[in-house]
Amino acid sequence: MPNYKTHDRINLALLIPIVSILLYYHFEILSVILFSFSYLFSTFYLSPDMDTKSKSYYRWNIFRIFWWPYRRIMTHRGISHNIFLGAAVFMLYCLPLIVAIVILSHSTVPLELLFGFVTAYNFHIIIDKIF
Q: What is the largest CA-CA distance in the chain?
């Protein structure tokens, strides 16, 4: 099973061709930036390994208290590592936080942010299954 450095490196390497493809097919620059930001944030802070004391978990510093209930509810390599349900369950757990951000910022969550998160999250799962 790859460690966090391997996951980070592979996800970073995969972002380059993804951004190239998006730009080649004339996606708006703002959409590509939002996707990339979300993808990178997910790579470093929102991995499927949040159910353990992983590097992603520790990167949250004092805010990792938010993940304590998640770690108690989820079992490692359980539903969080399911390619179809993992990201959905993760987003459900984060829903109160997402709603608070949307209300406080008086905005909506662009789909590019969701796609960036889901892409990086699922790459982590695929990498785990390959290695």
A: 44
Output the six-digit token pair for 24: 């080649």
Structure tokens at 61: 């510093």
- CB under 8 Å to 45, separation ≥6 — which residues? 56, 59, 60
**12 within 8 A of 43, measured Cβ to Cβ:** yes
pLDDT in tens, 66-96: 999 999 999 888 899 999 999 999 999 999 9
Domain count, the chain: 1
Range of the domain at 75: 4-130
What is the Cα Rg of the chain in Å?
15
Mean pLDDT of 119-125: 96
What pLDDT does 64 receive?
Answer: 94
